[in-house]
Amino acid sequence: MSGFPVRRMRRLRSNERLRALVRETALEVSHLVMPLFVRPGRKLRRAIDAMPGNFQLSVDELAKDVASLDALGVPAVLLFGIPETKDEAGTGAYDDAGIIQQALRAIRKTAPEMLVITDVCLCEYTDHGHCGVVVERRGKKVVDNDRTLELLAKQAVSHVRAGADMVAPSDMMDGRVAAVRRALDDADFADVPILSYAAKYASSFYGPFREAAESAPKFGDRRSYQMDPANADEALREIALDIDEGADIVMVKPALAYLDVIRRVKERFSVPVAAYSVSGEFAAVKAAAERGWLDERKVVMEILTGIRRAGADVIITYWAADVARWMKESPT
Ligand code: PBG
Hints:
Blueprint: H1 5-14, H2 16-21, E1 32-38, E2 45-47, E3 55-57, H3 59-72, E4 76-81, H4 99-110, E5 115-120, E6 133-137, E7 140-144, H5 145-162, E8 166-169, H6 176-186, E9 195-200, H7 207-212, H8 233-245, E10 249-253, H9 259-268, E11 273-277, H10 279-290, H11 296-310, E12 314-317, H12 320-329
Parallel strand pairs: 1-3, 1-4, 1-12, 4-5, 5-8, 9-10, 10-11, 11-12
Antiparallel strand pairs: 2-3, 6-7
This protein binds ligand PBG.
Ligand PBG binds next to helix 7.
């Protein structure tokens, strides 16, 4: 017998330094990515209703905010663009003078060290709001997978040319990672990594984002190309395919309702895992905190630590800036 192990476990918990000494999971700002929305205009900070503290920013304001994030120690941002005009083929997405391309060039001036990741998808740029080119087949409107691939590849190359450090295809078309990889290699960007939204669920937690990115589908939904929330084995298959095609980091999205998926991905594969704590997860906690029902900082630290504990190396979160600020103000 070894005495009273439970008492010693209690002792390990009761002293702050002892607790820190044996803590299994560290939540550090260096693992966080802050999503940002950019739109045309000047001196614009348009508040996003369901995501308090987040804005659609014009390029000038965005460039300033990214510099502040850099000063706070946030290592990376993920950019989403709202173009001047939308059309059927999402032309704004791969226009070298497009909104993301402008934003990248501006950020390169104000925050040259910032790691800038761009979302590669057509849904913000198409007038119908779907993630690809829509065609009619047998009287039904469907997304044309293969024609979309070409455009996504063009979009990725255009982003990297404008200064993106990494691209994140989020559209869920089949074969997109391979298409983007090939296009980047051909354009002499063989060293630019791909963060793939490998397991992306058809989730109801994206609601506030679709308002923020003005990307809600005008008809139908995304169930033909996003995954059924009930499936986890399927996520592993999707991820294996993406790694095979050349994904360097794989993402599970959303995070909170899919912690088991994050864990299984982490255990199965040896590439870094990212988790996207999406807009609905953010909005739910914000709303409760505003009513005084939850302590925002404590709950957020608990959620993000949980996502890390589940196995995420990287967390994309709308709280990245707040966490950096909180940790600076009072580290514990
Ligand atoms: C698609 C995309 C979406 C999100 C990130 N990339 C929306 C969707 O699939 O409808 C959602 C992110 C969030 O809810 O925070 N470009």
